[in-house]
Structure formats: structure tokens, C-alpha cells
Design brief:
5 helices; alpha+beta; elongated; about 220 residues
């Protein structure tokens, strides 16, 4: 009788340990899901900032090229009546940037100032769009390359990642990318697609794009 009770107790204890072990594995697996989801979110957010930085650099280069051209045109005698009222944009950008609150970072000030000046100028300046379009044409390839490199550096998944800028996203560059969830156990029961954790990140607003009809729709 006692041997039977001892045997039942041993089976019960072993079963209890098995249940605890299974619960422990499940808790670790679920915890890893949340960790990887946050990783994917951070990766997407960082990639959107990288893409926005490339776009901002391109816009600043367009302004620099436009200003150089305009200064040469204004130095001619006589000055073309179509351009005599125009002024370089670099000074305007600096003026707007200096008026922005100090709580903003230098990058945020640059982005807001460039966007504001271009948005106001593109509607009535027939010469500026050509300079901006030229830089935007090369920006797309640079955005593709740098976002790809950023995703790889953060151990994300490049394939099926998307980079979008359009009116439906409030003229923000939106990057959707993913990481692969690796469970503590049971990976063999899930396909690669099922273990993808997709997240989106958004950069700052670029309303100038509305005046240019500019958009991005890149699938990596």
C-alpha cells in the first residue's frame, strides 16, 4: 500500500515538474515575441528616419544648386525680368531654422525649415522644380540602398520590406519591415512567413511633396 502511494506521489511530482517546464518554455516563447516585436518596431522607425535623412540631404542639395544658378543669373546685365524678383533660398532656410524653438534638434529644425521654404516657393517659382526633381530622381536609389543597409545592420529582414511616401501617410516616409521571431521551442511547427513580425515606422512630414506630385513606393 505504501509503495503504491509513494509511486503515485513520484508520478505526481514528475508530472508537476513537466507542467512547470512546459509553462516556463511557453512564457519564454511569449516573452521573446514581445522582445522581437519591439526590435522590429525600432528597426522600422530607424529605417524611416534614415530614409527621411536621405530625402532631406537631397532637398538641401537642390536648394544649393538652385541658389548657385540664381546668383549667376542675377549677376548678369541686364537681369532677366522673370528672375529679378527671386532671392536665394538658403538664407530663407536659415532664417526659418533660427526662428524655430530650441527644444527641437538640429535635424528637426533643418527638416522643418527646408520643407516650409520649398512648400511656399514651389507654387510660384517656375525654375525651382527642375532642380528639386533632379535631386529627387537620384534620392530614390540612395534611399533604397541606405534603408537596406540599415535593416541588415539591425538584423532585420530586407525581403518584402516597403518604403512609401504619399498623401495617405501625411507625406511621411513610412517603412514597413520585419524581424524573424525565434521561439524557445517549436520553431519547426511554424513557417518562415508565420514567424515574421512586421512593424511600421514613420519619419517627419514632407508636405512639399504635394506641390511636386512626388511619391515613393519601393518594395525591397
Amino acid at each position: 500500500m505504501f509503495n503504491n502511494e509513494n509511486g503515485n506521489t513520484t508520478i505526481f511530482v514528475i508530472s508537476l515538474f513537466g507542467i512547470f517546464a512546459l509553462m516556463f518554455v511557453l512564457i519564454l516563447s511569449f516573452a521573446n515575441v514581445f522582445i522581437e516585436k519591439q526590435h522590429a518596431s525600432n528597426n522600422a522607425e530607424q529605417a524611416s528616419i534614415v530614409a527621411s535623412g536621405v530625402l532631406l540631404d537631397s532637398l538641401e542639395e537642390a536648394i544649393s544648386e538652385y541658389d548657385s544658378w540664381l546668383i549667376l543669373q542675377l549677376a548678369k546685365i541686364p537681369v532677366d525680368p522673370d528672375i529679378e524678383h527671386l532671392r536665394p533660398l538658403g538664407d530663407q532656410v536659415e532664417s526659418v531654422k533660427n526662428s524655430l524653438p530650441n527644444r527641437l534638434t538640429e535635424l528637426e529644425k533643418r527638416q522643418r525649415a527646408v520643407n516650409q521654404v520649398l512648400r511656399g516657393e514651389l507654387g510660384h517659382n517656375p525654375f525651382l522644380p527642375g532642380f528639386v526633381s533632379g535631386e529627387l530622381g537620384s534620392a530614390e536609389a540612395a534611399i533604397r540602398e541606405q534603408v537596406t543597409n540599415n535593416i541588415i545592420a539591425n538584423n532585420g529582414i530586407v525581403s518584402q520590406s516597403k518604403i512609401v511616401l504619399n498623401s495617405s501617410s501625411d507625406y511621411r516616409i513610412e517603412v514597413e519591415t520585419s524581424t524573424k521571431y525565434k521561439s524557445f521551442k517549436f520553431d519547426e511547427y511554424f513557417s518562415d512567413e508565420q514567424r515574421r513580425l512586421k512593424q511600421k515606422g514613420k519619419g517627419p512630414t514632407f508636405e512639399f511633396a504635394e506641390a511636386m506630385g512626388f511619391s515613393l513606393d519601393i518594395e525591397l
